[in-house]
Automatic annotation (TrEMBL):
SUPFAM superfamilies: F-box domain. InterPro entries: F-box-like_dom_sf, F-box_dom. It comes from Lolium multiflorum. SMART domains: FBOX. Residues 4-57 form the F-box domain. This is F-box domain-containing protein.
Length: 409
């Protein structure tokens, strides 16, 4: 009779060295390794291993970029990602949540903004009532959903920014306040509400450490209203961009009916709540060129502006220096696929950290854009199964945090 012997498990440090050799870009392979056995799962789920595998300043992406969309006919917002690590199928927002209280509160919700794994949605209960706004904050990594108090105001348009604890920590190291009872984590929501006309614009703030919304703050003073025409904050497709402790919206105005629109930034200091309006110091002959779309972004830690110019179908990147001046740091000629696309209305979608950039045209077709060569790949059917709606929000999640949430032991 042959004797059988059990295999001796490899020491944890040996397993760690083996798993560190899994290519960083092959995330699905690392997930498959993690579910092989309890020992490997524990090694992969260790935060120190994940940070070593994906160093924050490494040249390769240390985060996953996805999108939350509310396509017509679906009950919940859907998550779409070019990464197949979460499965090839589109997942509903509800599949990320342990519980949504009260039940079905997120039915027909519309995504508004995302940052650091937090997603702000507008609830259907507030879509039909013109004098109130209902929002909820979903923590995709923790699987929680916090419903905010109703905001009583007239709502024609709404644009939001979501701020994390890291955003709200002051430069001297003081930590953000602990959330009040009933909220799962610290967050702060800035809501830009447009009423009956574009200049009827108010800013509201809500913090999980406070019980109620702030009083409204007028976004435009009387000087702006007297000396400008067509003054407005561009809430779609340009949501707020957070850079160096300030949340920025993009705005435009004209000096009269015949002049070309000028651009400005409307900033809200994350710590103090103070607001500022600053005209973009970009040559007028550049801003006046006909364009398909504009979007604020962050490049190398600095605020930047992406402009899709009609002339030559060129994507320009303007970056703001420390002295407030803007310099064109990149100009690439786009090369659309052979099939006809309609750039009359373009949504430019990008993540907080990654260099991935997607464009959605007037028909909802989606194109992944190479920022080095300008090549555009049609990924509508491959990734998005027929296009995007107007209500689509990019969300970027840190890989280590995502692994910790999925493989915690």
């Amino acid at each position: 009779m042959e004797e059988t012997t059990e295999a001796t498990p490899l020491p944890d440090d040996v397993v760690r060295e083996i798993l560190l050799r899994v290519p960083t870009e092959d995330v699905a392979a690392l997930f498959r390794c993690a579910v092989t056995c309890k020992q490997w799962r524990a090694v992969v789920a260790d935060l120190s291993f994940l940070r070593q595998h994906w160093p924050e300043k490494a040249p390769h992406p240390s985060s996953v970029l996805g999108f939350f969309d509310s396509p017509y006919g679906y009950q919940w917002p859907l998550f779409i990602s070019p990464e197949k690590v979460l499965g090839a199928r589109r997942r509903s927002l509800g599949s990320f949540l342990v519980a949504a209280a009260p039940p079905d509160i997120l039915n027909r919700a519309v995504p508004l903004a995302a940052r650091g794994g937090l997603l702000v949605v507008r609830l259907a209960a507030g879509l039909l009532a013109g004098d109130s706004l209902r929002l909820a904050v979903c923590d995709i990594l923790k699987g929680t959903c916090d419903v905010l108090p109703p905001l009583q105001c007239r709502v024609s348009q709404c644009g939001c920014a979501i701020l994390t604890r890291e955003d709200c920590c002051s430069l001297d190291g003081q930590q953000a306040q602990t959330p009040s009872t009933g909220y799962s984590a610290f967050f702060k929501v800035l809501a830009m509400i447009v009423g009956t006309n574009d200049q009827d614009c108010n800013l509201y703030a809500f913090s999980s450490s406070q019980p109620t919304w702030s009083e409204p703050r007028k976004c435009f003073d009387q000087v702006w209203q007297r000396d400008t025409f067509g003054l407005r904050i561009i809430l779609r497709p340009s949501w707020a961009t957070v850079c160096r402790g300030v949340a920025y919206w993009l705005g435009s105005y004209s000096t009269d009916h015949r002049s070309s629109p000028r651009c400005f930034t409307f900033g809200v200091d994350v710590k103090t709540g103070e607001t500022s309006s600053t005209e973009l110091l970009i040559p007028a002959n550049q801003l006046s060129l006909p364009s398909f779309g504009r979007m604020l972004s962050v490049a190398g830690g600095n605020l930047s502006l992406l402009i899709l110019q009609k002339e030559g179908l060129r994507l320009d990147t303007w970056t703001r220096g420390d002295d407030g001046t803007w310099i064109r740091t990149r100009a690439i000629e786009l090369k659309p696929p052979k099939q006809v696309w309609d750039p009359v209305y373009v949504s430019i979608l990008s993540g907080e950290k990654s260099r991935a950039l997607f464009m959605s045209d007037a028909y909802g077709y989606v194109y992944k854009t190479d920022l080095e060569k300008g090549a555009m790949q049609d990924v509508t059917e491959e990734m998005f199964h027929g296009g995007l709606s107007l209500w689509v929000v990019p969300i970027e999640m840190d890989w280590p945090a995502l692994f910790m949430s999925r493989l915690a032991v």
